[in-house]
Amino acid sequence: MTAGRVAQVEPEQPAADATRPARRQPEPPHRRPRLWLARLDTKASPYLYIAPFFVLFAIFGAYPLGYTFWVSLHDWDLLAAEHPFVGFDNYSRLLADGDFWNSVLNTLGIFVISTVPQLLLALWLAHLLNRQLRARTSFRMSILIPNITSTAAVAIVFGQLFSREFGMINWALDLVGIDAIDWRNTRFGAWVAISTMVDWRWTGYNALIFLAAMQSIPKDLYESAAIDGASPVRQFWSITVPMLRPTIVFCVIISTIGGLQLFTEPLLFNSGPNPIRGGPLRESQTMTMYMFENAFAPHFNFGYGSAIAWMLFALIVVISLINVLVIRRLGNSTRKEG
Amino acid sequence: MGANSRRRLVTATAAAVTVLAAATGCGGDEAADDGTITLTVDVFGQFGYEELYKQYEAENPGIKIVERGTGTNLDEYSPKLTQWLAAGKGAGDIVAIEEGLLIEYKANPQNFVNLLDHGAAELEGNFMPWKWDQALTADGSQLIGLGTDVGGMAMCYRTDLFEAAGLPTDRDEVSALWPTWQDYISVGEQFVEADTGASFLDAATQTFNTIVLQTAGAAEGYHYYDLDDNLVVDTNPAVKQAWDITMDIIDSDLSGKYGAWSDEWVAAFKQAKFATIACPAWMTGVIEGNAGPEAAGKWDIAKVPGDGGNWGGSHLAVPAQSEHQEEAVKLVKFLTSPEGHIGAFKAKGPLPSSPQALDDPAILEATSEYFNDAPIGQIFGEGAKNLKPVYMGPKNQAVRTEVENAVRTVELGQRTPDEGWTDAVNNAKTAAEK
Amino acid sequence: MKASQHLWSASKLTYATLIVAGLMSIFPIYWMFVVATRSSDAMGQIPPPLTPGGNLPGNIERLFNNPDAYFLTGMINSAIVAGTVTFSVVLFSSLAGFAFAKLRFKGSNALLLVIIATMMVPTQLGVIPLYMLMSQLDWNDRLAAVIVPALVTGFGVFLMRQYASQAVSTELIEAARVDGCSTLRIYWNVVLPALRPAAAVLGLLTFMTMWNDFLWPYAVLNDPENPTVQLSLRALSNGYYNDMSQVFTGTALATLPLLIVFIIFGRQIIGGIMEGAVKA
């Protein structure tokens, strides 16, 4: 690093700049390009650093997005040659579609049951893991193992665990005298089973993210708080949680996006005929499944399916905003108490 | 980060770039520099063409055949095929199309080569007329596929469970037990009373499908859509008749309520949890696989109640995007010739759709050891030849799905029979409009 | 100091909770392992067998000899894909995350919101236009089709941005500026070390996601001889009936590389405690 060399350049203080040349010797010629380069560096490098994402996105992300939106404005049969323009017809039909609202209900229901406990649990687990433990790595590995295994294999296992006749959970319930529950074919049962699958898989993931963030919190904060007489619980809510706020916001948004887009777990849970239907009464059909069902067999209505995709987008935006506002609110109130 | 890490970073970058460059190159297609044409055949499940490919390659030097998708599920194959057709790229030179989806694909014949332009008309006699018509567009001007197999229909049953229930086990005797569906239900009630711990049948939805195709075939020849493509699910007496019989089956508690093709259904084979199952020819392979070798000889095949029927079967088509249309059509003709059908049957058991093949001794005399040496060629072949075809309208698959799911809701006790019927009609109407 | 020892020691209750959490996490995997060492019949049995059987070597052999699965190729391809993407994502995400968090530039808030918004549109239908794009580039059946679109992710940028805003000290950056460091120098010497735990987490998560990715490779890699590992696992299931023990054996083997990667990256996350970023 530069020791003892005072910079000639201070881009945040142009006023001082103007006075400098007057006070000093005229700058030797090789220092002027330096000044110019440094200014360029400060102005241009942020854009350069974020450019890779946007370039790649423009090609591989924006095009599919735009295409999907364009398709949603047409009566677009995937196999046909012609696709008449229908404006927002698909959207208005969607709003009147009972099965669509059913899928919204399922999506929101599963989302609430899975995401809320998951994040709280993850926060708590990370807190427990953020200590001097023996066999630290093993504990950390054990909570991440669910996320490592492929979703397909997991869904098969859970599908079997929750099976009506041959499943282990019903067998265990039977041991304590409770009747077998038909997990797949009751709405609440399906929601619980799917949420269990999701929570099992993602709690460790979120815990790990929280854990990494917790490690950037300086220890002295805790120590001075302890000296001041704060209880561990108080320390958790007054130090850890506020300092983790950006990470909490991150996890909430990511979980919202992922949770509302849930596709693989419910699809694989419904092994049998038309798994994409989510059960004969569509008990566990999420919005992405409904979208897929309409876009491919048996309806092949790509336009309608694309409209569903964008409605889901709108829902995710709304819910994410609500979540972030709630967190901000909670964060502010904690700070006031703290 | 010290100098060491920086060096490591640079090395890693260099490695990554090399890999990326290599990855962009690898996996590409083979240059046909020696003039060999590679034909790609896209299938699902098991068509049994391996030996036929070898024979064809030997007789046609310069052609190499590659099969993709062997063993895949129809549910996964179908979106892929759609994707390829929609994108205009990626499909094989020959694609298999299952009869349920054929209707949808037929509605847009421009995606496929019109086989009539390639001299297919002279092959019409090689196929059962209803099979030929399935791949023909409404105006008869375009033929998009040639038939591979048909399902036929029989009733497979477990001899050990029948014995335990005090019922006869010999297949002719069993066939005589149920000439009609009402007789079948009576036998079922008898079975349930014997309390063997198993159900009489696996799922009411399977049975419903069989019955509706029979009632429709025996009556006007159509079920959900009439011949003018009007949706008649609520007015066609054939559909209501099939519905009512199925309601009786559910009412008599004959069903094991398994979701067809689910994990539970698969496990139920192993555990011998049901005694009969509606059995097209290809189901024998499923039973054998699911029940396992220990059940060999415990299954047998009897006639299906009612009057025969068909479930399933496929065609082979040539997508218009193929770069080797002539050669592909030639291969399709070979695979769907009577010899082709016989070869496939000998390999994996799919029932030929060719009347000549069905009369061939190879088929007539074929037996299945697993099924107690049942004469499968005869049993299924008879049913297939005597099949009365059922016209399938444009949105057949979607409508059929709704009606079958309504049956299942009643089966599971989620709806009463009347509610279920209302659901079936309403959902079918909605689905037809999507 | 006694106070700090008390703060960071783990009580018995902590251990108990973690053990329960660990067991619940591991049990389904253990069950998979049991089935992998037995045969598919184990799936439907009541009461379920809870101990491993002895079929593992046989199952492994059948797995590698399975002509339809190309399992070894699948593992290698997945390693290439996951490795390349992980490296690229960590690099570009940390650059962009640092820029959004600590550098001031016009439109930074709007652009960040755009990035987050792009993650909110479900991607299943994008398969079709993306597939058409790949056809144009003639990348069908090539690993590039799977690698290139994934080289930078909104998730990565967002994660690094949040972490950087919390863990990288603005004062240190200012001080480095005063000393005349270029932005790149600042990134290299100040920011990257502070981002290490998050970089490790992102690397691990990205590797796992790419390793387990199914939908897009399934759509674009149609040559059965050139699969990724998830595709070859899928090919293990025969269309008519699934040999679960083979599928689970394959899954177990496919998970091993992930465990190895975890152990490597895991040290980085632990290491973060000792080295830390900044003492306020």
Compact summary:
The complex is a heterotrimer of chains A (338), B (434) and C (280). Chain A is mostly helical and 338 residues long.
Number of strands of chain C: 0
What is the general shape of chain C? globular
Q: Can you list the strand order of the major beta sheet of chain B?
A: 2-1-3-9-4-10
Proportion of beta-strand residues of chain B = 5-15%
The percent of residues in helical segments of chain B reads 40-55%
CATH top level of the largest domain in chain B is Alpha Beta
Q: Could you say what the CATH topology of the largest domain in chain C is called?
A: MetI-like fold
Describe the structure.
The complex is a heterotrimer of chains A (338), B (434) and C (280). With 338 residues, chain A is an all-alpha fold. Helices cover 71% and strands 0% of the residues of chain A. Chain A folds into 2 domains: 14-51, no CATH class; 94-337, MetI-like fold (Orthogonal Bundle). Chain A has helices at 14-23, 31-72, 89-95, 98-129, 136-148, 151-161, 168-175, 187-214, 219-227, 232-243, 245-260, 264-269, 287-295, 302-337. The model of chain A is unreliable at 1-24 (pLDDT under 50). By secondary structure, chain B is α/β, with parallel strands linked by helices. Chain B has 2 domains: 37-150 and 312-359, Periplasmic binding protein-like II (D-Maltodextrin-Binding Protein, domain 2); 154-309 and 372-433, D-Maltodextrin-Binding Protein, domain 2 (3-Layer(aba) Sandwich). Chain B is built from 19 helices and 10 strands. Chain B has helices at 3-25, 50-59, 74-87, 99-106, 129-134, 159-164, 171-177, 181-194, 204-218, 237-251, 263-270, 283-291, 325-335, 338-348, 355-359, 361-364, 376-385, 396-411, 417-433; strands at residues 37-42, 63-68, 94-98, 145-150, 154-158, 199-201, 274-279, 299-302, 313-317, 351-352. In chain B, helix 2 (50-59) links the parallel strand 1 (37-42) and strand 2 (63-68). Chain B starts with a helix and ends with a helix. With 280 residues, chain C is an all-alpha fold. Chain C is globular and about 70 Å long. The two termini of chain C are 20 Å apart. Classes of the chains: A mainly alpha (338), B alpha/beta (434), C mainly alpha (280). Chains A and C meet through helix 2, helix 4, helix 5, helix 6 and helix 8 of A and helix 1, helix 2, helix 4, helix 5 and helix 6 of C.
